[in-house]
Amino acid sequence: MPVRIGYLLPTREQVMQGRPEAALLLALAERAEGLGYDSIWVGDSILARPRHEPLTLLSAVAARTRKAELGTAVLLPALRNPVVLAHGIATLDQISEGRFILGVGIASDVPNIRAEFVACSVPFEKRVGRMLEGLRLCRELWSGEPVNWNGRWVMENAMLGPTPHRPGGPPIWIGGMVRPSLERVGRLYDGWFPNSPDPGKWREQWAQIHQIARAAGRDPAALTGAVYLTLTIDDNAARGEERMNAFMENYYGRPAAEMRARQATYAGPAEGAAAWLRSWVDAGVSHLVLRFAGDHQQHLETVSRLRRQIGAS
Predict the structure, then answer these.
(1) Can you spell out the DSSP letters for 224-249?
(2) What integer pLDDT is reported at residue 302 of this predicted model?
(3) What is the CATH T-level fold of the domain 4-310, as seen in this structure?
C-alpha cells in the first residue's frame, strides 16, 4: 500500500515571525491538498510555544479542503477538560466529514511546558493519568449513549451532541518512544506517531508494539505506524545544515545538536531527501508527517515531485 504523506502547517513559525494571520496558513493547506498531500497537521501549545489553537484552525482547514485527512501533531489532552474536548472534536469531525485524526502526547518535561501546565491549573505530575482517563471519557461521550462517570470528572446520564461523523470517534495516535507509550499504542490506541531519531529505532519499536498488540488480542495490522520528520531541502548541503540548526534552535530554544539527536531531521539536496524519506518507508512507516524548515511553497512542490521515489501514489 502506498505511503501517505502529510504536511505540518507552520503555526508556530508564523507566530514567532509576528505574522499570526490565518489566511496564509489556510492557503498553504489548500495548496498542499492541491499538490496531492494526503493529510494536513497542526501542532499544539498554549503558552510554552505559542501558536494557533489547533481544533479551531483545523475546522477552518476542513471547510477549505475536501479530501485530505486532518490531524493534531500532537495535542496535549491533559491541558483540556475532556468533556469540552470531546465536544470540540466531535464538531470538527462533523465539519470534516470523518477526516480527523487525533494525535496526542503527554508533553516533554522542560521548564516552559511545566509553566504552561501551572498556568492552566493542571498538575504536571498527573498529566499521564489525566490524559488516559480523559481519552476514555471522550470515547464514551462519542458513543452517543448516556454516560455515567465518577472519576476526575463526574457526570450522570450525560449525552453529547453532535457525536463524531466517524462512529466511535476519530482514530487516536499517540506519540512517545518510552516503553509505557508503546504499551498504550499496542493495547489501547489506533496508531503510533513518534519523532523517532532514525528508521532503525523506529522499526525496532514498531515490532515491539506489534508484539504488545498480539498479546492484548488485537490485530497489529489495524494499527497505523506514522512518524514526524523535519527537513530542509537545499542544493547546498552546508547551507541546508546551517538553516536546519538555526530553525531547531529558534523553535525549541535549545541547542540544535541536542534536539537533532532526539528527533529525525534531514538537510540537503532533493535526491537525498527522497532517499532519506524512502528509508522510513522501508522501515515500515505508512504515514510520513513532514515539517519544513524553510520556504513552504518551495518545499511543498519539491516533495510533491518526489512522491513516486518515496513510495507514495
Answers:
(1) EEEEEEEEEE-SSHHHHHHHHHHHHH
(2) 98
(3) TIM Barrel (3.20.20)
